[in-house]
UniProtKB/TrEMBL annotation:
Xref: Pfam families: Hist_deacetyl (PF00850)
Keywords carried by this UniProt record: Hydrolase, Metal-binding, Plasmid, Zinc
GO BP term (any one): epigenetic regulation of gene expression
One term of GO molecular function: metal ion binding
Entry protein name: Acetylpolyamine amidohydrolase
Keyword Phosphoprotein set for record: no
Family stated for the protein in its record: Belongs to the histone deacetylase family.
Record carries keyword tRNA-binding: no
Domain Histone deacetylase positions: 27-330
Superkingdom field: Bacteria
Required cofactor(s): Zn(2+)
Length: 345
């Protein structure tokens, strides 16, 4: 399987507020490097670098003012003499009546974020842009070369980034950006299947009122798990999108037998939808020893996950999302890809 990777991800590494403490982020450069090393060790296939895409590709999934904020946030922050990571100071309770972007960077950081897990550093925008370009490159390779699948080894991840806010280590929504691109290239119905432990709230936000993208997610029950405020079963879409969002929240301690049942059910929904292009938001924080999650999948289960997904038999783009047990993240991600290709170690 083709892998697309950008070394520019190394430009972003920061701090986060978690459990009442400021400390190094769980989302660190070693994550992507560990996965890449496993890709090379297993000889999964050819590895290429990302190509640059026009920023208009990002605006299709996000808003113009949000992209402009990400581009300029560090320069506005550092112009005040602040040479340390930028984190929000205050968050608005946003509704339709609160839609005025603040002038000052402290206000902007809160306006465009959902948590304190997305630091802005000097290299953040370049890394974030390269991550989105990685997804776009992999998507384009599938389309232009008519290949069955590709793996976008994205970092930072993207599925918590909504149309106008960042959060959960995510700035640009790589899966949503790739889906929009696939639609511009002639595909009619795109499905995004999110298998990360955490609900892909950002992806859901972007496509919630649309019927040309079916969003499906298996994740920890939001009553107990981040991001807490989305991912419930009764979230089905609105307007034209009603019925084109499907959420399967699962309880703490979920093992493969329960997980597979949910996976097969969602794949059946995607098949009934008639998707002609599939995007997998591949988070492997469903692993039993992941430090910030509480499912109990084993490394061998990821072979089965990949094999099960392959049965849809449509063009499939895998996009790297979460997974924070660095020693196993490469094994579990690559096992999924090997399973998809019908290979088992």
């Amino acid at each position: 399987m083709l892998t697309v990777f950008s070394s520019k991800h190394q430009l972003h590494h920061g701090i986060e507020l978690k459990d009442g403490l400021i400390g190094p982020s769980f989302e660190k450069p070693q994550r992507a490097d560990t996965v890449l090393n496993r890709v090379k060790t297993i000889q999964l296939g050819k590895i290429i670098s990302e190509r640059e895409f026009d920023r208009a590709c990002y605006v299709k999934a996000h808003s113009e003012r949000y992209i402009s904020f990400l581009e300029c946030a560090w320069s506005e922050w550092s112009a005040l003499g602040r040479n340390y990571d930028a984190l929000p100071l205050v968050w608005p309770v946003r509704d339709l009546a609160i839609d005025q972007e603040p002038n000052f960077i402290d206000g902007k950081l809160g306006f465009y974020s959902m948590d304190a897990g997305c630091p802005i550093t000097a290299g953040t925008w370049e890394a974030v842009k390269a991550s989105a370009d990685t997804a776009l490159t992999a998507c384009d390779e599938i389309i232009q070369k008519n290949i069955k699948s590709a793996f976008a080894l994205c970092r930072p991840p993207g599925h918590h980034a909504a149309r106008e806010y960042m959060g959960g280590y995510c700035y640009l929504n790589n899966a949503a950006i790739a889906a929009e691109y696939a639609l511009t290239q002639g595909f009619k119905k795109v499905a995004i299947l999110d298998v990360d432990f955490h609900h892909g709230n950002g992806t859901q936000n972007i496509f919630y009122d649309r019927d040309d993208v079916f969003f499906a997610s298996i994740h920890g029950d939001p009553k107990d798990s981040y991001p807490y405020f989305s991912g419930f079963e009764n979230e089905l879409g609105i307007g034209a999108g009603l019925g084109f969002t499907a959420n399967y929240p699962l309880s703490k301690g979920t093992k493969w037998v329960e997980y597979k049942e949910a996976l097969e059910s969602l794949l059946e929904r995607i098949n009934e939808y008639g998707a002609d292009f599939l995007i997998i938001s591949l988070g492997v924080d469903t692993f039993k020893d992941d430090p910030i999650s509480h499912f109990c999948l084993e490394s061998d289960d990821y072979f089965e996950m990949g094999k099960t997904i392959s049965e849809l038999n449509i063009p499939t783009l895998f996009i790297m999302e979460g997974g924070y047990m660095v020693d196993e993240i490469g094994i579990n991600a690559v096992n999924t890809l090997l399973g998809f290709e019908g290979k088992f170690l």
